[in-house]
Amino acid sequence: MSASTATGEAAPTTAFRSFVWRRLGTILALAPLGVWVVIHVWNNLAAFRGAEAWQESVTNHRHPIAAAITWVVVLTPLAIHTLWGLGRLKTSQPNNMAYGYFGNLRYLLQRISALGVLGFVAAHLWLAFLQPRFVHGHPERFADIAREMAHHMPTLVVYLLGTMGVAYHLANGVATSAMAFGVGTTARSQKRMERVALVLFVVLLALSWGAIYGLWQAGGAAA
Ligand code: HEM
After folding, report:
1. Of the four, 53, 81, 122, 157, which is 20 to 30 A from 13 by CA?
2. What is the pTM of this model?
3. In CATH, what number is assigned to the domain containing residue 132?
4. Percent of the chain with pLDDT over 90
């Protein structure tokens, strides 16, 4: 016999744990993860100001401890949100064949973009963060990433698509998570949240592709 049927108390505890887990996955995705993503993309725009400015904004940390704290504050929420997201994916039931509504499409795209973001972030973390630091012994160099962007087509395509996936996933995620917190529950406010998501998507995409353009241009000029 399970503890829950014997005491009648385990079920509420389990429900409470699942509620906390669900909210934790959402909150960590918004901050610090989502906020950090926006700052990271913004910092990359320093590509337009040259190698020194880019390295100062993106890869240099004043102190190793500050660097370690940043990584923990970003990577731990990413790991928790990814575990949480994979759990959500397992129980997802898209019904786009039966219902052709925009909301159903957004639900499906949120899940497809999650898988794309997973692949992109894993590759990006290895190639731009872990490999340069721990295999080559230095942070990613501006000249290296700019050259790859300009002369290695797969890198350029992966960055363009990967950042588009992140822009959609985060922008739509902000709108859907607002509902979890009681914002956007009426039809009118849902429409408003839809517009917020669209604006956020366009802004994030413009910033990301702008940064990629800055790197691509610098890589081309250096050749
Ligand atoms: C840059 C990294 C990421 C950011 C900033 C991010 C952000 C977000 C945000 C803000 C939400 C809305 C939360 C909610 O609806 O409660 C969300 C939802 C979701 N995320 Fe992520 N995410 C990222 C990476 C990932 C990864 C790697 C996965 C796993 C494969 C993932 C899977 C999901 C899923 C499945 C949802 C939908 C949950 C639902 O609607 O039930 N995310 N994400």
Report:
1. 81
2. 0.93
3. 1.20.1300.10
4. 83
Ligand 1: residues whose CB is within 6 Å?
26, 29-30, 33-34, 37, 78, 81-82, 85-86, 88-89, 110-111, 114-115, 117-118, 121, 166, 169-170, 173-174, 176-177, 180
Is residue 30 in a domain?
Answer: yes
Nearest to 116 by CA among 152, 163, 77: 163
What residues make up the domain containing 136? 10-222
Q: Which residue has the tokens 């973390």?
A: 125
Task: Decide if 212 contacts 163 (C-beta within 8 A).
Answer: yes
C-alpha distances (whole Å) from 13 to each of 16, 59, 83, 88, 92 are 5, 44, 21, 20, 24
Calpha distance 50→37 (Å, rounded): 21
- Is 5 a domain residue? no
Measuring CA to CA, which residue among 150, 159, 153, 97 is closest to residue 127? 159
Rg (CA), the chain: 20
Number of domains in the chain: 1
Q: Give the model confidence (pLDDT) of 20-64 as tens digits.
A: 998 999 999 999 999 999 999 999 999 999 999 999 999 998 788
Q: Phi and psi at residue 50, in whole multiples of 5°? A: 100, 175
Q: Could you tell me where the beta strands, DSSP code E, fall in 132-219?
A: none
Alpha helices by DSSP H, 29-63: 35-44, 51-58
pLDDT average, residue stretch 2-15: 61
